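Re: [ENG-882] Designed sequences occasionally contain unexpected residues at chain ends

Forwarding the minimal case from QA. Structure tokens:
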């Protein structure tokens, strides 16, 4: 079952968000310690009005266990949603995160992190989450769904292509090269 996330889901969802981000979690936070990164993301998942809030997250739950998550939001609101995150990092970790760039833009509903528990991969959970993200975008009145996929991640690229996403352009983001893919809603 896919449902909106709740603050009580923090312990199960935050590791999925960090898993999806990979090395970007360290780059975004400017923190190397995995425990501190986990603490930062837990703090923000429980809060309203930020990029990694439970408000912007759907979860796939089976028999009371969360097996996957999708974090998504209006791309035009990215800077506003990221501001509390950056202010917190500056205040608590003296991080200067001003030159990181943006991964999305106005005019698209952005699928930020899509993650499935490694023990549950290969069962179609990721596809169901992506479909739920597309449906969420439709409900909110968006016409385009966007995401980034690392250029060397052929498996994810193929999944998104099979689901109807097309590469719109190539994007440099936080030191990596990505395909910026979009799905047009009818």
């Amino acid at each position: 079952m896919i449902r909106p996330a709740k603050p009580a889901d923090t312990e199960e969802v935050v590791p999925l968000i960090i898993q999806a981000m990979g090395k970007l979690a360290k780059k975004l936070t400017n923190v190397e310690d995995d425990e501190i990164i986990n603490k930062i993301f837990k703090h923000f998942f429980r809060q309203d009005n930020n990029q990694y809030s439970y408000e912007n997250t759907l979860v796939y739950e089976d028999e009371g266990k969360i097996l996957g998550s999708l974090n998504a939001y209006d791309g035009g609101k990215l800077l506003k949603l990221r501001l509390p995150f950056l202010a917190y990092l500056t205040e608590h970790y003296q991080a200067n995160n001003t030159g990181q760039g943006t991964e999305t833009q106005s005019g698209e509903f952005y699928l930020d992190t899509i993650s499935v528990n490694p023990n549950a991969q290969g069962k179609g959970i990721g596809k169901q989450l992506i479909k739920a993200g597309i449906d969420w975008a439709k409900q909110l009145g968006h016409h385009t769904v966007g995401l980034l996929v690392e250029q060397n991640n052929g498996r994810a690229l193929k999944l998104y292509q099979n689901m109807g996403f097309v590469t719109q352009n190539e994007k440099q983001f936080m030191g990596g090269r990505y395909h910026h893919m979009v799905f047009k809603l009818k």
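QA comment: On inspection the terminal residues look reasonable. The chain is about 40% helix and 25% strand. Proposing we downgrade this to a documentation issue.
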